[in-house]
């Protein structure tokens, strides 16, 4: 069978301009001269991310193009092979710097041949099979000048036609170029360790296939830091791919890039086909479902924000700057998000109540649920995505007027699982809690939380309250006639007492001692600490009566159990995190519901070991 | 056995004819010698009394001897307040009379 190739097409495509639609959508008959898989060499596998470079001839010239991945199957199924005659039905042309990249979007197999027709020559006179060891870098134009000087003095041209997917990066292959957006850039950090001093910064690169962290040290860091900007897209090549140090990064990738002397970074000026940041947003209401210390993406309206404040970290004794943002969204919930360091200082909203999208923020349980920025989090104001527009519309029409609830709902109700909420589903009787708490190993540093319901049996009368500073709550000392706070450096005329109590509670399984602070005293006595101290000093009998009246009252408790060791002994101390007076109706409902559970459906056992509640 | 007065609703009451029971209820109407009350399952019972009925709130618990399926002779009244969730009370009453529990725990 003879075929008539569309002679002259290669010439036209080589010189085409973007609006030559009929050229791109017309049918052209061409012959395949070669097919080559580019990218990570996966010899015997066929991945959907494989990309094939195809050389097509019109009998007079040949040119290179990339095959759209949706056509990969034709090659896999061996319908499309060398010397096939095809009818290209649709192609697109990307303009990269001054080069054209043609992508074949649709083609039809017409027939098979076993040799090439004519003596086609390359349409691009200086095009040649590069003698470099990496077969997937054919387009080398020595006259091509990179727009921005690279990290090293030698200016080399960078191939633009076949960038590697980030997902495909591995340490076993070094000849890749990725085209990715910087979604996050850290500050230039200084460090000193046993080997000396240095500086580093890291970025997160992201493209359609995934994301990867890259780090640069010392001189390279200095050179690259001003060149890589958050939000911009770059071509990066010749970095070293190593195993990721998960300790330092949250990025989902087993590998990370080390940008060393030979690494090349070039800004991508093409405005189409740029990788966009992928979010998977959760609504603020759904934050409750997430566990503490996990990360998430959210998009919300900035309702208000605090000034920058400075706090001293107890652990490191260093001061840190922070700023609190209050965010709200359509779910009717609000949440506080903390910015740190320079980001806190430099924060400025683009407008009144902008939409802000956050990626990779850490979930905390302060006040129910809270969010904080970590090194790999990103914040983008008013992003151009549909969710942002939807939020803007909602807020401008109705949202700004509504009230929002926070995850730490008003006192007396039971917020959900986790550190700051009394957890009804996890409620345990004292004996069970005691047994479980005693199983906490010595090594466990963090406190374990328990919920329980018990009755106050005895309150220790000695040392029931201490004189406290109004602002910081630390103990103040009397000095002559006035009181002085060491921490705030203030002098106060009179102390404000705060409760510090040791009290015993019981239930049907046993007895325990709890330690409580001011809120416990307020709940148990119904009087302020100042009043109670006054009674204590004035009238012994009345004080004892007060202590007695506090007994035989039941409360729901949220406890922090922590192991304390003194010398050889180690004991569990129970601190009261929340004390909640009982709402009998709620409790009754809870007990009735318990009877409806499978546990409640059992028969009575006369000698039961499990029926503790 | 006679010291115990289990809580009942109108459906369970007939089982205790001749015995003492307790009825948590809502007071509907009062006359000189009777009080009509609504039990936790929505039924109506007539409470007969002599002297002072002693009821001073909208909800009360009547302790008395069962005369017939719908009549009780009052022995004592415990006044509750103006709000009581009778549905919740009913759930509890049903549990009380569950065969698993009644004979062991409540009698």
TrEMBL record, chain A:
Q: Which GO terms describe its biological process?
A: DNA recombination; DNA repair; DNA replication; telomere maintenance via telomerase
GO MF term list: DNA binding; zinc ion binding
Signal sequence span per UniProt? none
List each copy of the Replication protein A OB domain by range: 284-382
Cellular localisation:
Nucleus
Tell me the subunit arrangement.
Component of the heterotrimeric canonical replication protein A complex (RPA).
Q: What does this protein do?
A: As part of the replication protein A (RPA/RP-A), a single-stranded DNA-binding heterotrimeric complex, may play an essential role in DNA replication, recombination and repair. Binds and stabilizes single-stranded DNA intermediates, preventing complementary DNA reannealing and recruiting different proteins involved in DNA metabolism.
- Annotated family: Belongs to the replication factor A protein 1 family.
**Name of the protein:** Replication protein A subunit
Origin organism of this chain? Lentinula guzmanii
UniProtKB/TrEMBL annotation, chain B:
Keyword annotations for this protein, in alphabetical order, are:
Nucleus
Q: Which InterPro entries match?
A: NA-bd_OB-fold, Rfa2
Q: Name one GO molecular function term.
A: single-stranded DNA binding
PANTHER family in the record: REPLICATION PROTEIN A 14 KDA SUBUNIT, REPLICATION PROTEIN A3
Its name, as the record gives it, is: Replication factor A protein 3
Top-rank taxon, per record: Eukaryota
- Name one matching Pfam family: Rep_fac-A_3
Stated family: Belongs to the replication factor A protein 3 family.
Q: What is one GO biological process annotated to this record? A: mismatch repair
Q: Which GO terms describe its cellular component?
A: DNA replication factor A complex; site of double-strand break
Q: Where in the cell is it found?
A: Nucleus
């Amino acid at each position: 069978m003879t075929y008539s190739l569309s002679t002259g097409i290669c010439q036209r495509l080589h010189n085409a301009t973007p609006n030559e639609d009929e050229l791109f959508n017309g049918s052209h008959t061409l012959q395949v001269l070669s097919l080559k898989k580019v990218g990570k060499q996966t010899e015997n596998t066929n991945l959907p991310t494989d990309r094939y470079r195809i050389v097509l001839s019109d009998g007079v010239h040949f040119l290179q193009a990339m095959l759209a991945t949706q056509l990969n199957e034709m090659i896999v199924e061996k319908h499309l092979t060398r010397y096939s005659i095809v009818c290209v039905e649709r192609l697109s042309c990307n303009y990269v710097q001054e080069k054209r990249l043609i992508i074949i979007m649709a083609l039809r197999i017409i027939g098979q041949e076993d040799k090439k027709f004519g003596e086609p020559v390359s349409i691009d006179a200086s095009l040649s099979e590069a003698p470099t060891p990496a077969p997937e870098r054919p387009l080398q134009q020595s006259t091509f000048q990179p727009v921005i000087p690279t990290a090293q003095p030698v200016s080399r041209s960078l191939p633009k036609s076949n960038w590697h997917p980030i997902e495909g990066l591995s340490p076993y292959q070094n000849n890749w170029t990725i085209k990715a957006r910087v979604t996050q850039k850290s500050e230039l950090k200084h460090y000193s360790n046993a080997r000396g001093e240095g500086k580093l910064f890291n970025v997160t690169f992201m493209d359609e296939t995934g994301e990867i962290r890259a780090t640069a040290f010392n001189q390279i860091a200095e050179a690259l830091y001003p060149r890589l900007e958050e939000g911009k897209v770059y071509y990066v090549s010749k970095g070293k791919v190593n195993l990721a140090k998960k300790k330092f990064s949250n990025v989902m990738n087993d590998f990370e890039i080390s940008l060393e002397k030979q690494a090349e970074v070039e800004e991508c000026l093409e405005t189409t086909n740029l990788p966009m940041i992928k979010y998977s947003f959760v609504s603020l209401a759904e934050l409750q479902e997430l566990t503490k210390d996990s990360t998430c993406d959210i998009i919300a309206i900035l309702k208000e924000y605090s000034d920058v404040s400075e706090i001293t970290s107890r652990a490191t004794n260093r001061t840190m700057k922070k700023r609190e943002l209050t965010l709200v969204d359509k779910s009717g919930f609000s949440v506080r998000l903390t910015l740190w360091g320079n980001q806190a200082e430099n924060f400025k909203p683009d407008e009144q109540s902008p939409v802000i999208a956050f990626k990779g923020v850490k979930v905390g349980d302060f006040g129910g649920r809270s969010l904080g920025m970590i090194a790999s989090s990103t914040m983008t104001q008013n992003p151009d995505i549909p969710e942002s527009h939807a939020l803007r519309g909602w807020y401008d029409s109705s949202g700004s007027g509504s009230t929002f609830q926070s995850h730490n709902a008003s006192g007396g109700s039971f917020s959900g699982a986790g550190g700051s909420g009394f957890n009804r589903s996890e409620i345990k009787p004292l004996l069970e809690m005691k047994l479980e708490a005693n199983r906490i190993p010595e090594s466990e540093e963090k406190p374990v939380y328990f919920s329980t319901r018990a009755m106050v049996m005895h309150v220790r009368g000695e040392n029931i309250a201490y004189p406290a500073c109004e602002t910081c709550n630390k103990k103040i000392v009397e000095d002559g006639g006035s009181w002085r706070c060491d921490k705030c450096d203030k002098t106060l005329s009179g102390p404000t007492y705060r409760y510090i109590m040791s009290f015993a509670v019981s239930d049907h399984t046993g007895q325990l001692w709890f330690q409580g602070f001011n809120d416990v005293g307020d709940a148990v006595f119904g009087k302020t600490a100042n009043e109670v101290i006054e009674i204590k000093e004035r009238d012994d009998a009345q004080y004892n009566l007060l202590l007695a009246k506090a007994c035989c009252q039941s409360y729901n408790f949220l406890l922090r159990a922590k192991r304390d060791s003194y010398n050889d002994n180690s004991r569990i101390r129970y601190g009261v995190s929340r004390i909640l007076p009982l709402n009998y109706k709620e409790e009754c409902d809870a007990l009735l519901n318990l009877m409806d559970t499978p546990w409640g459906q059992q028969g009575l056992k006369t000698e039961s070991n499990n029926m503790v509640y | 056995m006679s010291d115990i007065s289990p809580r009942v609703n109108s459906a369970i009451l007939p089982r205790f004819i001749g015995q003492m029971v307790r009825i948590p209820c809502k007071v509907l109407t009062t006359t000189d010698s009777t009080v009509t009350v609504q039990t936790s399952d929505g039924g109506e019972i007539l409470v007969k009394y002599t002297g002072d009925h002693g009821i001073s709130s909208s909800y009360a618990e009547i302790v008395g001897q069962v005369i017939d399926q719908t009549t009780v002779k009052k022995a004592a009244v415990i006044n509750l307040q103006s709000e009581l969730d009778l549905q919740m009370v009913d759930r509890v009453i049903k549990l009380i009379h569950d065969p698993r529990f009644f004979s062991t725990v409540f009698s």
